[in-house]
Amino acid sequence: MPLRLITAGESHGPGLTCLVEGLPAGLQLDQERLNRDLARRQLGHGRGGRMKIETDRAFVTAGVRHGRTLGGPIALQIANRDYANWEERMNPWPVTAEIPEVHLPRPGHADLVGVWKYGLTDVRDILERASARETTARVAGGALCREFLAALGVEVRSHVVQIGTVYAPAATGPLAVDDFDAVDDNPVRCLDAEAGRLMVEHINVQRKANESIGGVFEVVAYGLVPGLGSHVSWETRLDGRIAAAICSIQAVKGAALGDGWDLAARPGSLAHDEILFSEERGYHRETNRSGGLEGGMTTGEPLIVRGAMKPLPTLTQPLRSVDISTREPAQALRERTDSCTVPAAGVVAEAMLAFVLAEAYREKFGGDHIDDVRDAVAHYRERIGWKAR
């Protein structure tokens, strides 16, 4: 069965829903780990007042019994506590109060094109679903995928490497899973304390100037077997599927695998990862410029992907726009917002990468029960002589 992840819900509606279909039966879940990822999505210096209202927790309503998956669709619900302040404006059913429409689309948001596309007149009918609040449901579903991957020895981590014009120094060597143990303790989820301090200062300066700020996050997956994805058709190439998943995150405008954009300027001898063999290590590489992907397939090295996030389109000093009811010049909608969400976007990207990788494992190894999947992975590793990394 193919793996599917569907979300539903609006930013200020009653709540968010996630449906995950295709995970095997018998997978042990941990409620606290599930909710921990939701709490991690709310981290990061530069968040707005909404994070003081919401305390996100996922409630399982289907597909799990006594902490184990049953093999059917899993349904998760996350309540929007802020709905109490929006009940008249966002009630699913008609209300007696007169609710004014919003006619001030924001540059950089889905507002204007959305009302054109769907034949609507109220920008709120678009912005509520287009909001990054939707990623709460993705993180909940991604947490289920992470549990599946963890059962197969795969771990996914992330960190922030750039905010605005502030860059973290390049790592002196490959990052290991343990290097991420304290990343969430940093206010911007940066592995370099001094760079993190400068990032916080930069956010503060931009916020005082009524600006929002973007940046770059990096996600790394460890413990993957070679051969996930395929070279045989464009839609099966895993790098394309990962790029689509990362760029589907609100405000993300670019994705890079491995050394990504830097490879374009290098000669071939400095762009590829030479193949070595030893009796002790088997086939291996001394570099990972490709980010663990060749020919649309995993190589077994850590999978590395970066996402470039633009500044958020809701500004405390709004940009110029047009009132769509009068077509007169106006300022764009001003709504409560964050000034920087790059740290949170890294957590969302973990969830999206976990989904794509879980989907690839389900495609390759099948299995109705998690033990069937483990057995199939073990047999494959034995067949190709793959040594544990």
UniProtKB/TrEMBL annotation:
Pathway as given in its UniProt record: Metabolic intermediate biosynthesis; chorismate biosynthesis; chorismate from D-erythrose 4-phosphate and phosphoenolpyruvate: step 7/7
PANTHER family per record: CHORISMATE SYNTHASE (PTHR21085:SF0)
GO biological process: amino acid biosynthetic process; aromatic amino acid family biosynthetic process; chorismate biosynthetic process
MF (Gene Ontology): chorismate synthase activity; FMN binding
Record keywords, A-Z: Amino-acid biosynthesis, Aromatic amino acid biosynthesis, FAD, Flavoprotein, FMN, Lyase, NADP
Protein's UniProt keywords contain Amino-acid biosynthesis: yes
Coiled-coil spans in chain: none
SUPFAM superfamilies (UniProt xref): Chorismate synthase, AroC
Pfam families: Chorismate_synt
The enzyme's E.C. designation: 4.2.3.5
Family, as annotated: Belongs to the chorismate synthase family.
Protein name: chorismate synthase
Enzyme class: lyase
One term under GO cellular component: cytosol
Cross-referenced Gene3D superfamilies: Chorismate synthase AroC
UniProt entry tagged with the keyword Transmembrane helix: no
